[in-house]
Structure formats: structure tokens, C-alpha cells
Amino acid sequence: MSSPTSTVEPLNAVEDRYGGVRVDLVEEHMDCDVYVPRLKASISQWRQQGVKGVWIKLPIRHAHLVEPTVKEGFRYHHAESDYLMLVYWIPETPDTLPANASHTVGIGAFVMNNNREVLVVQEKSGAFGAKGVWKFPTGVANQGEDIWTAAIREVKEETDIDTEFVEILAFRQTHKAFCGKSDLFFVCMLRPLSFDINKQDSEIKAAQWMPIEEYMAQPCIQEHESFKYVAEICSGQSNSSCSGFRPVPTLSTSGKKSYTYFNKLQLQNKKKELGG
């Protein structure tokens, strides 16, 4: 006698590079009474084939399939605005599926004019919104956005100042930040290309050019060790006593464009090696 799943068409799956499969439900509609038998048949087939990890991407239009998928042993991995990803580890061995993204990437923009004045803002909300603290323009890099591009964009959005990226001066790592993720925060030095401020009304209460000594003298800067260190590094760079990191276009192992950051001495040595 044939098994109940032998005549059921399995879900369409594509093999990945790690002994697993990925399922993207592209159908416009699928009822639970059709989906569940196909999922059961698929799991049986994958187990026989020695498949390890299974990834099922459910578009938001298939939200009704989340519960039956979980009942078959799947768990949440991550979600975006238009889909939910669920995963299932089949063999009786330790689960080695990679975790969801663990970090966010933030930037702080150090912009100083020829009068040794730094570009600072006061936010309308957030941790410093009610404290009257003057701070560098800050923000979060978008998916697929380079650090230096994010820094230029955030300054433009918050103050309407045009800038060009110079280098990364420092970075900080903290944990249990937004949504429990870890955070990498990069302090970027930018050179101003314009000087007339037009603040972003929706998020910024005030913006101005401030003498760097006045910025550093703020109690908030002096009382918080990490803020003080960053301010001192920025001040040192303005006196040319520090050297930051600059992006060099490179290719990843998959052939995609990326950036590797070097300091001035490393770049000079690399140019010498290349005969430049």
C-alpha cells in the first residue's frame, strides 16, 4: 500500500550550498488543506534525501500558513515588512543554521569648518531630546548602504549640509541595544561643502555651528567616558595628531563590490608596494 504522501506534490525547493533547501512560496494563494499535505510530503522527502536545514519564506499574503508551518516543527528566523522566514533543522544533530542578523550599524558625523566649529544638532525626541544636549548628526545605515554613504546622507537629511567623506575616526560596540541587538557605531569625519543650515523640522529641534571647545565642555560629554573619548579623538584629528581609516574599493569572494578600510600609513605602504 502506498503512503498517504506518495501522491502529493512536494513544495518547490532549491538546494543551498550547505546541504539544505529553500522554499519560496510564489503562488498567489494557497489554502491550508492544500499546503499542509504538501509540506508533510516535502519533509518526508527531505528527510530521506538527507537534507539538513529547511528555509521557508512566507510572503505576507500567506500569513495564514504560519501556524500550520510551526506545528510541523518550524520556528521563526526573521521577518521583514513583506515576508516571514521560518526554519527547520531535520537531522538529530546540533542545529547549525546561522542566526538572524545580530548587529545594527550606526554612524555619528564629525563635521568641522575652517573656524574650528563643529556641526551639532538637538533632537526633538530620543534619549537626548529633553536634555538640551548638542550632539553630532547621527543615524542608522540602511540595508545595502555603505558606512560613508550613510554618514553623508544623515548630515544632509538633518541639516541640509553637503559633505564629502574623509575617514572613520573610531567605532564603538555595545550590546542589548535596539530590539536586543548589538550595535556597531562608527564616528565618521566629513568635510563640509556647504555651510548654510536648514534643519530637518520633523526630527531636529535646533542645529548650528559650535566651537569645538564649547561642544567638548558640555557636562554630558565630560561625564560620559565614551562620549569624552570620541570628542578627544575628533579634536585630535582636527589638529592632525590622529589618523583614521579610509575606504578602498575591493571585491568580495563572491565578486561583489565592497570596501576595506585602511589608515593613512597603511595606504601609503600599499601604494609603495604597487609602485605608486
UniProtKB/TrEMBL annotation:
A molecular function GO annotation: NAD binding
Gene source species: Populus euphratica
Pfam families registered for this protein in UniProt: NUDIX, Nudix_hydro
Classification via SUPFAM superfamilies: Nudix (SSF55811)
Family named by the database record: Belongs to the Nudix hydrolase family.
The gene coding this protein: LOC105121431
PROSITE patterns: NUDIX, NUDIX_BOX
Keyword tags: Hydrolase, Metal-binding
Protein name per UniProt: Nudix hydrolase 2-like isoform X1
Domain Nudix hydrolase span(s) in chain numbering: 102-234
